[in-house]
Amino acid sequence: MPEEPAAIVAAEAPRPGAPARRLVEDHHRRAAAARAVLDHLDGVRARVAAQVHDDRARRVRAELDGLTVDRLAEVTDRNLRVRALAAAGFTTVGSLLDATPEQLETHDGIGPHTARTAVAAAQQLADATATGLSMRITLDRDDASGTRLLGSLEVLVRLGPEVEPHRRDLDDYSRAVEPLVGAARPATRPLTFLLRRGQARRRATDALVALAGWDPWVRATGLDRLLDRLATARAEHGPGPLAVWDDFERRSAEYYTVLGEIVPVARDVLASHGMLPSELADRVAAVELDTTLLDVSLRGYQAFGARFVLNQGRVLLGDEMGLGKTVQAIAVMAHLVASGATHVLVVCPASVLVGWLREVDRRSSLRAWRLHGPDRDAAAASWLAEGGVAVTTFEGLRHVPLAAGEVLDLLVVDEAHLVKNPRAQRSQDVAAWADRCWRVLLMTGTPLENRLEEFLGLVRVLQPALVDALPAHLRLVGADVLRHSMAPVYLRRNAVDVLVELPDLVELDEWEELTPAGEAVYAAAVAAGSFMDMRRAAFATADPAESSKLGRLLEILEDAAESGEKVVVFSYFRDVVDLVRRTVAETRPDAVYGPLWGGVAAEDRQAAVDDFTAAPPGAVLVAQVDAGGVGLNIQAANVVVICEPQLKPTTEAQAVARVRRMGQVRSVRVHRLLVEGSVDERIRELLTAKSRVFDEYVRESAMAAGTERAVDVTEAVLAREVVEAEQARLGYGPVWDGLGA
Predict the structure, then answer these.
(1) Cα separation of 726 and 528, whole Å?
(2) I need a surface site. Which of 54, 76, 143, 481 has the fewest CB within 10 A?
(3) Mean pLDDT across the stretch 319-345?
(4) Helix, strand or coil for residue 93?
(5) At the top level of its lineage, which domain of life is listed (predicted)?
(6) pLDDT for 171-181, tens place per residue?
(7) No. of helices (H) and no. of strands (E), the chain
(8) CA–CA distance from 323 to each of 159, 445, 450 (Å)?
(9) What are the strands, taking DSSP E only, across 167-220?
(10) What's the burial of 687, exposed, middle or buried (CB within 10 Å: 0-12/13-18/19+)?
(11) What is the Rg, in whole angstroms, of the alpha carbon atoms belonging to the chain?
């Protein structure tokens, strides 16, 4: 674009008539095209902003409509006449939002003080609620409002990268040219031009000169090619109402980024940031994370979580189950040890202690010490002398030796919701240790924001001053607002928040120990050479306290119910399936479906699946792996529990495929219940090589059905190898009777 278009001499202007007409019309066409594409994008942005505004207003209204007006007394003085407000029809805080003090005063019993205070308090709650609300896009394909929003965002995602780099040039050009086109139009008609007065002719001539001055810039920038490309892109039809959801799932980060440019608060829902204010998120993202002692690659949101813990010091990490809270904790440990720290202590339920020891060993170069069982004292002494990561249970915490003045670099408390009761002994033990350590990480996948006192009880362990300073009115509003207020200490991401980073299949090995009762049953099975009894020894009793796998299974089901998920439980054994169903039905009879097993007719199996699909979140479907793993679509669930290792890679793969199918919009989480030092471990070792072959040659093969036999281990061979190994380990002779029992 020339800096001084007027510097072009008049002789360079086209003659009045056809040459001038071509020049004017060409620039008019270009300016109109440039303005049209800019106005189109701006109009879409305006629609998005309006929809977000309306959605936020609706959500604020819904939140406050759920608060009865008498709750205002908790955030105002006690002289507020809430009964008079209710008698006048203002029964909820939301009903006060459209009222003025003058309107309230017209009702009996409502004076100026109550009227002004009530309206001010309602508005205060509305403002607080709106501030904390994020624009979260929920994966609900039947949501017409969400579909409209995604349709608008898709236009911006698709056209924005084409237009935005040229926005300033297009805007400057169209703004400059449009008035010149109007001024130069008299020169397009020779007779009219000649009849104009001298001053009018000069204005038209000057406008022609100015328009001609833009021609070199138009050619140099390839404006015509750009406008043609933008017109073609604008004319393209985006994905339909259903396909746009698929596009959002693939590129959710791009959609949220565009949304964040229009509605700044939307930045709070970017995958790795949870609901942190942008200033805090920026500080956290700037933390340098040392991963030299880490033996695993972190996903983006996991690295952010580790940085958050390091930056904040005392944190409640509430990520949904399956997002890798353990890995984030290990990343924090590895960073601290690489920086000179020596002693880390992990406190967890006994059911996950083995898993912690294995994860520390597998995911890092850190030394893990087991402060539990008969060797507890010796391990504790070694930990104190050599440093590393000590892992103990809530009950064992009081036996951990750490003299006054000795430094603990990091305290990690897993399943922290178990210490929510401040009067419980284990809660007091954890609180006492937290007081001795500057860095404390509490972890729980249970959503606690809607259980205010429990949530604040855990926050109080970390930062009591934050709880004491919490304004009273924030205790009345919703979970999002509370999370916003607790941002310095609380970070929670749901699977849907990090869907773009999360694999569509998350596999978790749940390693347990046999209880004394289970050990007795297992030893007898090994002595008898009963392979099948060895496989189900961890389910030998119906008491979860005496059955390590059953106890852990119930914890997984409880966490899934808290998170609004549905679960399918698979076992090879009919009696294990029946045991699981009975146990779940004892506390939640309306939530358990099935069992599905070989003796159930096909139509009855499908009916059970249909009932399970229609059931509310928290439902559990139990099935034999051979019956439920073939021919059924169970994508209503996104959590799978496999009670014991299966003898063929294909068996587990087919069972998981029932859930992980086309139409599944969430990441599928698979929990495998395993017992350390048992037949489970031996089966896993023997099948590892075969599973790799299966992955490489079968899973992607069009001839998979015919190839399975080439990679599966026969049950008889596997049974003999496993029983022989276990008998040798436990000191029994090779007893083969009843091998197939």
Answers:
(1) 11
(2) 54
(3) 93
(4) coil
(5) Bacteria
(6) 999 999 999 98
(7) 30, 13
(8) 33, 9, 21
(9) none
(10) buried
(11) 34
343: helix, strand or coil: strand
CB 313 within 8 A of CB 439: yes
Q: Which domains does the chain show, CATH number per domain?
A: 5-55+143-250 (no CATH), 56-132 (1.10.150), 271-498 (3.40.50.10810), 505-730 (3.40.50.300)
Between CA 495 and CA 501 the distance in angstroms is 9
What is the DSSP code (8-state) at residue 68?
B
Chain center to CA of 302: 11
Per-residue model confidence as pLDDT tens digits over 286-315: 899 999 999 887 887 888 999 999 999 999
Q: What is the pLDDT of residue 429?
A: 94
End-to-end CA distance of the chain: 88
- Lowest pLDDT segment from 149-158, 264-273, 330-339, 518-527: 264-273
- List 593's β-bridge partners, or say none: 621
Beta partners for residue 623, in sequence order: 570, 596
Q: What is the pLDDT of residue 6?
A: 39
Least confident among 236-250, 255-269, 484-498, 516-530:
255-269
**738: alpha, beta or left? (left if phi > 0; alpha if psi -120 to 50):** left
How far is it, in rounded angstroms, from Cα 130 to Cα 147? 23
Q: Could you tell me if 491 and 276 are in contact, meaning their C-beta atoms sit under 8 angstroms apart?
A: yes
pLDDT: which is higher, 393 or 626: 393
- pLDDT band at residue 709 using 50, 70 and 90 as cut-offs: very low
Residue showing tokens 């328009």: 211
Q: How far apart are CA 65 and CA 94, in angstroms?
A: 4
Q: Which of 562, 344, 525 is nearest to 445 (CA)?
A: 562
Alpha-carbon distance of 622 to 126, in angstroms, equals 45
pLDDT of residue 698: 39
Under a CB-based contact definition with an 8 Å cutoff, are residues 517 and 709 in contact? no
Over residues 130-154, the mean pLDDT reads 76
Q: What are phi and psi of 675, to 5 degrees?
A: -115, 130
Rounded Cα–Cα distance for residues 72 and 77 (Å): 9
Is pTM beyond 0.70? Reply is no
As a whole number of angstroms, the distance between CA 287 and CA 257 comes to: 22
pLDDT band for position 568 (50/70/90)?
Answer: very high
